[in-house]
Amino acid sequence: MEKATENAKNPAPLKLLGSWASSYTHRVQLALRLKGLEFEYKEEDLGSKSEELLRLNPVHKKVPVLVHGGRALPESVVILQYLDDAWPETRPLLPADAFDRALARFWCHFADDKLGPAVGAVFASTGEEQEAAVRQVHENLALLEAELRDGAFRGRRFFGGDEVGFLDVVLGCGSYWLAVFEEVTGVRLVDADAFPLFHAWLREFEALDEVRETIPAVDRLLEYARGVRHMLLGLAGGAGAGGDATEAPAATAAPPAAAPPAAATDIAVDI
Amino acid sequence: MAEEIKKGLVLLDFWVSPFGQRCRIALAEKGLPYEYSEQELLGTKSELLLRSNPIHKKIPVLIHDGRPVNESLVILNYLEEAFPDAPPLLPADPYARAQARFWAAYSDKVYEVGSRLWKTKGEAQSQARAEMLQVLGNLDGELGEKPFFAGEKFGFVDLALVPFMPWLTPSFERYGGFSVAEVAPRLAAWADRCMERESVAKTLYPGEKVDEFITLLKKKYGIE
Asked: Which GO biological process categories is it annotated with (chain A) (predicted)?
């Protein structure tokens, strides 16, 4: 990949503020690597956020933030689309067709609003509550499996087609936590028999060079996850499990189990 | 059974839905003809809705030549991309587009937090109030002294946010005990400015009608 040339077309330097265990950060790192774009990386201590981060992302105060020519872009999904728009000559993440793009965006929201929080809920709970969360994860995975089997993504190697795309990056950088959470909680989440196509896709995704460069080593993830689970269970039952201290993968993937009463939002007609 | 594919645009929607209104305003701004299909949400959902959005079973759904597109912001992006000859709502510059996408997504918070204001009491409601003030402050700050969010022209962020204004005033204001004109004066002026546009004026319902609807929901779901 002609790294120097790609950046040269839009030469202002790229800097990424992130956190090593944040799957949202990984999305951006992976996207930059897939596009052959050079960038400077700055590790943020989420327990003690830098003045720079707070200045660059005053609304959410979160990582990742991409800085391009001094201008800040927060939110991984916004950043990914920006990369396509600002470097149209590089390998595109979103598909070309408008309807396919709509599908990619829809399933991206599904990953962030449904699947991610469900996985986070499994991680943050035990007993009956956890069993209910596991059922939720399985329901969500079943929907994805159905799309891979007979639906929008039928017959594809990746969600993006023959090559990885936007949805692979979004789903993939998060799905590696499934095996880690399984190990730490002792709960089966991705059964290769129940979800053969999802399982196969994840193995293909994880085998890619750029992905292996991006995802941290399993033992580091395991150690981290064990620490987070310990903390979450220690605080379970109290308000705001996890708080702001760490943007734990479970916390970034899901609002803590004791977040604003879910019952209230379930009541309404969702219009 | 061969089903004839219906050509053109159909919008499955619900009269007072601000998410549906985003789509209606966009379609009007772009001059795109479409069939509006009012959906029964408080009773039994139609077979067409359930078939078009099996996962969430929600409106709005835009059906284009028989293929469904779900979720208001996804629909807005789709309209930009599927009809490149229609007037654009997103700016051309990549950074400005990114900002527009960020703030349009952020505007969802007005509804999300606002809903908690009328559904909850006590601590939960206070929390929602505090969050709402922050959200409104952020939006007011982002708008600044500009006439519209992207500058001189009415666009993506404006139409994503404006449908929530009749929910804010009077309803969310009353449940939360605050005034938009006080906590976000520039936003209040912007809302009036948006109402001068035909697409907005013809699409939005007055705050009083929205308030009636919320009262109806409260009764239906037994919320005090």
From this structure: glutathione metabolic process; toxin catabolic process
Residue (of A243, A91, A79) closest to A160 by Cα position: A91
Could you read off the pLDDT of B102-144 as tens digits, one per residue? 999 999 999 999 999 999 999 999 999 999 999 999 999 999 9
* DSSP code of residue B67: E
A58 and A122 belong to one structural domain: no
Query: Which ipTM score applies to this complex?
Result: 0.94
Give yes or no for a contact between B200 and B25, defined as CB atoms under 8 angstroms apart: yes
Question: Which helix (DSSP H) or strand (DSSP E) does residue B13 occupy?
Answer: strand B9-13
Task: Name the residue among A228, A101, A111 with its Cα closest to residue A172.
Answer: A111
CA–CA separation, B74 and B71 (whole Å): 5
Taking the C-alpha atoms of residue B95 and residue B87, their distance in angstroms, rounded to an integer, is: 19
CA-based nearest residue in chain B for residue A101: B78
Same domain? A197 vs A224: yes
The band of A215, judged by pLDDT with boundaries at 50, 70 and 90, is: very high
Residues A219 and A102 in one domain: yes
Return the residue matching tokens 């929201």. Answer: A109
* Inter-chain Cβ pairs, chain A and chain B, closer than 8 A: 89
- Chain centre distance of CA B9: 19
Its pTM stands at 0.90
Same domain, residue pair A103 and A72: no
Name the residue range of residue A227's domain.
94-271
Domain termination residue (choose one: A70, A86, A102):
A86
Instruction: At A260, list the tokens.
Output: 């604003």
The CATH number assigned to the domain holding A177 equals 1.20.1050.10
A 125-144 residues with CB < 8 A to B: 143
Give the residue from A61, A64, A66, A67 showing the smallest Cα distance to A49.
A61
